[in-house]
Specification:
337 residues, mainly alpha, Cytochrome d ubiquinol oxidase subunit II, two-stranded antiparallel ribbon, membrane, cell membrane, transmembrane helix, transmembrane, 77% helix
């Protein structure tokens, strides 16, 4: 049952990166949109993120609950030594959700709309930035459990070049996902071409940011290159991700928008597989050379069993309803969305 729990943890993180990433990316796209096109972008964005707006953070909650219940020592270490970026990320989620709700449903349209818009777009950028910083910090071997001062314990654990480069890479991925997902939500050819250009821009930005991640890993002496290219799974996943990028660029102007979405999601899946496979099941790498392993830091056996069954049974109800939610939104006319 432990492996069932670990599978759900990995899957929840993946779905949050894809669905939550596309959600955050909608705000990032708006941030990088000219003033004359912002209104059109918002209307298209509402239709695109509508099916996942209320559900995307469910995956983050599931991942947190799994760590809290099934792997308490890992949860404690991460929430302690990463509490600053975690707090900033959560504040970004709250600010973003609040601003989105008020600017969309506020009955009074006044100068506050401008403030709501600013909060929404900047928190859409900040939230995935710190999500990536947290991810980078967990594997950068900068978490010092033996630190005896605040800066070394709670700042240097994440404040480094590698973590910030991972954060920028995450932002680029989110913008890319949003642009690809939104392409199929517009029937206007001019609008479609505009979002294709944005998808290309963020795809190139993701490649550049990915290169920065590798350079930062060399500078910080993090064996990322070894994690990616020193095993069959990493090489195959990297190759497949590269091929999917090539295919995507070949079909930008085609009518296969659903295939584009699948390819974008597939790329993110391969990226997560590449970055987690080599050091699996070690989820947190510590400065002193030790690590926190999902196999070694599991909770009580009965707790893991109960958690596994809860996840299996819960998925029977959650997944079909989520599919129906997306289906129902796709069937709505753009005029009524």
């Amino acid at each position: 049952m432990l492996y069932v729990v670990m599978f759900f943890l990995w899957t929840a993180i993946l779905l949050y990166l894809i669905l939550g990433g596309a959600d955050f990316g909608a705000g990032i796209l708006e941030l990088f949109t000219s003033d004359k096109n912002k209104s059109k972008t918002r209307k298209t964005m509402y239709r695109a993120i509508g099916p996942i707006w209320e559900a995307n953070h469910m995956w983050l909650i599931i991942a947190i609950v799994i760590l809290f219940v099934g792997f308490p020592s890992i949860y404690t270490t991460m929430s302690t030594y990463m509490h600053i970026p975690l707090l900033l990320m959560l504040l970004g989620i709250i600010a973003r959700g609040t601003a989105f709700t008020f600017r969309h449903y506020d009955a009074v349209k006044d100068e506050m709309q401008h403030i709501y818009n600013k909060i929404f777009v900047y928190s859409s950028f900040i939230t995935p930035l710190f999500l990536g910083i947290i991810a980078g910090g967990t594997v950068a071997r900068r978490i010092d459990t033996d630190a005896n001062n605040f800066v070394d314990a709670y700042v240097m654990s994440w404040f480094n070049v590698f973590s910030f480069s991972v954060g920028l890479f995450t932002v680029a991925i989110c913008g890319f996902l949003a642009a690809v997902f939104i392409i199929g939500q517009t029937t206007d050819e001019t609008e479609k071409q505009r979002f294709i250009k944005k998808a290309k821009f963020f795809n190139v930005a993701a490649v550049i940011a990915g290169g920065l991640v590798f350079l930062a890993s060399v500078y910080e002496k993090i064996p990322l290159i070894n994690w990616v290219f020193d095993n069959t799974v990493g090489v195959v996943a990297f190759t497949l991700a590269t091929i999917s990028v090539v295919i995507l660029w070949m079909i930008w102007n085609s009518k296969y928008t659903n295939i584009m979405r699948v390819l974008a999601g597939f790329q993110v899946t391969m990226i997560l597989l590449i970055t987690t496979w080599k050091h699996y099941p070690n989820i947190v790498l510590l400065k002193n050379g030790n690590h926190l392993s999902l196999l070694e830091e599991q909770g009580n056996a009965k707790t893991i069993e109960a958690l596994g069954w809860a996840l299996l049974l819960g998925s029977i109800f959650i997944l079909p309803t989520l599919v129906y939610l997306i289906y129902s939104f796709q069937k709505k006319s753009p005029k009524t969305a």
